[in-house]
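Task card 7
Instruction: Convert sequence to structure tokens.
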Amino acid sequence: MEERHWWFLGKRQIIKTLLASLPTPGERNLVVDVGCGPGGNIGALADAYDVAGIDTSPDAIALARQRYPGVRFWHGELGEAPPELDDRASFYLMTDVLEHVPDDFLFLSTLLSRCRQGAHVLLTVPANDALWSSHDEVLGHFRRYDRSQLESVWQGLPVTPLLISYYNTRLYPVIRLVRALNRYGRMSFGQRGTDLHVPPDPVNRLLASLFEGESRVLKDCLEGRRPEGYRYGASLIAILRVDDPGIAPRQRPDDVDFEHSPNGVPSR
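Output:
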């Protein structure tokens, strides 16, 4: 699925475009994928960067090592990655990870505490609570974000957001319709209760091209040629620059409640 589905293909191209637009201190910069899963994102960057991945799933890491034998993968928690990675890493990826952890404030601030000054973190999350469906429940999501909620996770920390935008915007009306039908009919359009289904190849390629095409707007926003990115979409993307390496991990405040209960009912 990760190798063929339009969402994975388009997202990888967007990531590659944005990373190439960031300033780099060296020719072979290290990219560390936190929550790398079976390695598709980091494997796609191996031709241009030194790369490494870490994930808590032993099955995912075993598959990643099988698929990409030239890439370094670690099984374990974020804090168990070798310290020398942090000394070298120019970029960190955290794509669709924060929604899976109970304390997103702690997880992101722990990663930022490991970053050297000037390192960049590219992160993505699912957006818009109206899209909540069985897809989120099966995948183990705690929440979907809006822009202000995502910004609050790093608010007050010594980081500079170089980009914050919704994306997966062009296909948003279709996605919203599918999710509404899922809720109404208590069903799913994809495998194992998700919406992940590879359509016929011509359709899949068209959807990937439409999604990937959003990279132009996001790149212009990152490089200052547009005042802002997309105002709505099925996901959010952000790029943070770490300005001070002395960040201390912090827990989610008690008054933050944008979260779903396990059965998908909003907790607020």
